[in-house]
Amino acid sequence: MTGSTRERYDAVVIGGGHNGLVNAAYLARAGRKVVVLERRHVVGGAAVTEEVVPGFRFSVFSYVVSLLRPEIIRDLELPRHGLEILPLESTITPMFNGDYLGTWADHDQTRQELVRHSRRDAEAYDTYGRLMHHMAMAVKPILAMVPPDPTSLAPSDLRGMLKFGRTFRSLSRTHFHALYKLMTMSSGDFLDEWFETDVLKATKSASGIIGTFMGPRTPGSAYVLLHHYMGEIDGAFRAWGFAKGGTGAISTAIANAARAAGAEIRLNAPVSRITTSNGRVTGVVLENGDQLQANVVVTSLDPKRSFLALMSEDELPDEFVQDIRRYRIRGSSGKVNLALHELPDFTCLPGVGAHHRGAVSISPSMRYVETAFDDAKYGDFSRKPYMDIVFPSVIDPQMAPPGKHVMSVFVQYAPSNIRGGWDAAKREAFGDAVIDAIEVFAPNIRGAIMHRQVLTPQDIEDITGLTEGNIFQGELALHQLFFLRPAPGWAKFRTPVRGLYQCGSATHPGGGIMGAGGRLAAIEIRRDGVR
Amino acid sequence: MLRTTPLHDRTAPLNQGRNWRRWAGFTVASSYELSHDREYFAIRNSAALLDVSPLFKYHIAGRDAARLLDRVVTRDVGRTQVGQVLYTPWCDARGKVIDDGTVARLAEHSFRLTSAEPNLRWLGDNARRLDVRIEDVSDRTAALALQGPSARVILERAVERDLAAVQYFRLTTGQVRGRDVTITRTGYTGDLGYEIWMDATDAIAVWDALIEAGTPYGIVPCGILALDMARIEAGLLLLDVDYVSSNQALIDAQMSTPLELSLDWTVAFDKPQFNGRLPIRAERERGPEWRFVGVEVDWVSLEDVFTSLGLAPRLPTQAWRTSVPLYDANGIEQIGYATSGCWSPLLKKYLTLAHVEARYSSPDTPLQIEVTVEHRRRRAQAAVRRLPFFNPERKRA
């Protein structure tokens, strides 16, 4: 073994995304000797900031923050380690008739705006907001909880089910019914019960399709609506923010906290194999041949990569392998990052204004969004895609050279399994479709572009390693949540291999820059007492 | 930008301190002068002119208009006469108060409802299968309140007719400088007063006419700070301050029933059906747990708290709108909370409006109230009082 080394750790964490880093930070704080292995030259996974063009810093993939668990911010003292979250306060949706729909931070302002479209909806909006608040309150304790197995009679599972049951018992009848509907209905149908303004429903339902291969009329999409509503900042639900320095700054803050607690983080250290012996994990082998030994290995990668790529099937029970094969990932979104010499000038709100400090949603009608899905359903990217646009440089001027801007465009749909596979020509065609669709509402966009970075699901997979480029490491569908995430019987961060744990977004409670999986897995590892 | 009322061109130049506050998405003057004292005394001694245009206003018309309102509000609308105005709360199906306002019967099948919060959706939901048209006329209707002992004489000069026949909570129509107005003998001050309703485009002309007619009588444009003191003296509830709409409440404990707000007199139990009737009737049987009362802070006791620290008593110069704990007479158990309070320069009393457990609600029940003096929480003696604190003969005369 020339050049390769053998080292011993208490725990090896595979993947330096936010969950891996959170996990390592918690383990290090508990006194474990931990190493994080990151394949790329930068920590963060899908939460990275990179200077793609000199002077222009892109939140390359994930671009906003809301779901990051407050207990993690407190425990890891992330503000001290550099985390600063700036408010992202508004959303506007340009419409085909030259009008727009806006929601703003101020209640009076939002009401005034909604009244323009429908007095009835303006009133319903408040009631809807309160209902979602109750729903978020109901689900919030579950986010911080290890999912119990309802089929098990073990005391810890029974206790967990009891706690779970109490959460729902505490709901009033109407709230319970609403929660049931959210768990089962399509976001479109759910919103139809509340609103009459098409563009309002289109914009709201869009948050029910983000990161999933569903349309606003697909049953189950209402849950994603709630998932996004649960984001909280300083205790307030549905607050979305933008990390100063881009989402990579969040990863950096967590990495700083982990290092401060004694964790080691190795960059450019791709893992080739998880090693086991007699049903026990023994460590990992890096692509450079280095072997790291540990009784605990934690993977923050998605389950297909962890179990089907880094392990051989004979190390795992057949049933588990089948479940992981069946686990639904399906990439559905792409990303376009633009360096601009001027901000887009929206026909509906000419000039530079407060709307550039918030999100711009390209979801002019329910039909538009559903049609966007139709393209994807049949194997194409959306010719007229749904887009969620933010201008990080308006919120944090250091993201771009003075007077210049960066624009982040989340695009859906871009199916990972596009007909004929992704190639350079398709990528450019996809980028063109995005610019065309923006140009309808902001005619100056094409001329404002200095540089364009187009990321297809294939690119996302190639760069971050996320299977099919799915931003949630697997869809947030009811059959893949809670005690079924990622597989029945293996929702408690453990795996069939002793000492091998999982902590990525594919574990409960799921995607977004949440960190909950990383934290809960660390708690479970400590509970098991393996060293 | 927040919206401005149809009177903004007149009110803005008068606002010496540029003291604006929000009301239902509009900016209205907190006070026009640098201190609101003169505006407050105008309400009680001459006449105050207030821009109350931000109120929500709905026009409800059609064969079933009274039926709709009777489903929604707790008072008996069907039995009102044309030209009558009712103050009323309205409730959800559980009998929890959503909002309160006035219903004016403009004609047999035509009503105007005013409210603090938007209610269009609620009205629409209740109007199923009824022959009724509900129109939100908030934006095209401006409203002025002329309140105070000289209100009648000023308004008579402006409309050029005698108003003695317009009784308390009745309405009439007239013209001010050729502009049509509806005049209701209502207000939020507990004094002699009128509210004048007109097309938004006529508001400035009417304002000018009233100022001109009122100047010899000492009319004073008046902001919300003075109004807030007057309405406490009058024992009038304020949504979002004294109670939370059941639409806004996050938990049941934040909600109130009409009986808990001591609005028993507004509930027409003999009406066949209205939202919340059964739960409210059941509550009447067992007796409400809470009551809304006046609580007067004992001067001597308050002075003692200050004197013990070597200070002279310091009184609030404005009405406050925070929740202040109330305790039993021994200061052991918290039995309620005051939600508004002010020093009444007229009555020379420290008044609060409060929610107390029902068994502490009879007049003159001794209580204690928390007062913060020099950064420390202390207690002063207080007592329950019958509302309104101030109820002059001229209000109804």
CATH class of the largest domain in chain B: Alpha Beta
Q: Structural class per helix/strand content of chain B?
A: alpha+beta
How much of the sequence lies in strands of chain A comes to 15-25%
**Share of β-strand residues of chain B:** 25-35%
Q: Describe the main β-sheet of chain A briefly.
A: 7 strands, mixed
Choose one word for the global shape of chain B: globular
What letter string, H or E per element, gives the SSE order of chain B?
EHEEHEEHEEEHEEHEEEHEHHEHEEEEE
Structural class, from secondary structure content of chain A?
alpha/beta
Q: What is the CATH fold-level name of the largest domain in chain B?
A: Gyrase A, domain 2
Major protein interface: A-B, 14 and 15 residues
Low-confidence stretches of chain A: none
Kindly state the number of beta strands of chain B: 20
Largest sheet, spatial ordering of strands of chain B: 11-12-13-10-4-14
Summarize the biggest pleated sheet of chain B: 6 strands, mixed
Number of domains of chain B: 3
SSE layout and pairings?
The complex is a heterodimer of chains A (531) and B (397).
Chain A: E1 6-14, H1 18-29, E2 34-37, E3 49-53, E4 56-59, H2 70-75, E5 85-88, E6 91-94, E7 100-103, H3 107-117, H4 119-143, H5 155-169, H6 173-184, H7 187-192, H8 198-206, H9 221-229, E8 232-233, E9 236-237, E10 240-243, H10 248-260, E11 264-266, E12 271-277, E13 280-286, E14 291-299, H11 303-309, H12 318-326, E15 333-340, E16 359-362, H13 366-377, E17 386-390, H14 392-395, E18 405-412, H15 424-439, H16 445-448, E19 449-455, H17 457-464, E20 500-502, H18 516-528
Parallel strand pairs in A: 1-2, 1-14, 2-11, 6-16, 14-20
Antiparallel strand pairs in A: 3-4, 5-10, 6-7, 8-9, 12-13, 13-14, 15-18, 15-19, 16-17, 17-18
Helix pairs in contact in A: 1-10, 1-18, 3-4, 6-9, 8-13
Chain B: E1 3-4, H1 8-14, E2 20-23, E3 26-29, H2 37-45, E4 47-51, E5 56-61, H3 65-72, E6 85-91, E7 97-107, E8 110-115, H4 120-126, E9 133-136, E10 141-147, H5 151-159, E11 171-176, E12 179-184, E13 193-199, H6 203-214, E14 219-221, H7 224-233, H8 277-286, E15 290-297, H9 299-307, E16 324-328, E17 334-344, E18 349-357, E19 366-373, E20 376-385
Parallel strand pairs in B: 1-3, 4-14
Antiparallel strand pairs in B: 2-3, 4-10, 5-8, 5-9, 6-7, 7-8, 10-13, 11-12, 12-13, 15-18, 15-20, 16-17, 16-19, 17-18, 19-20
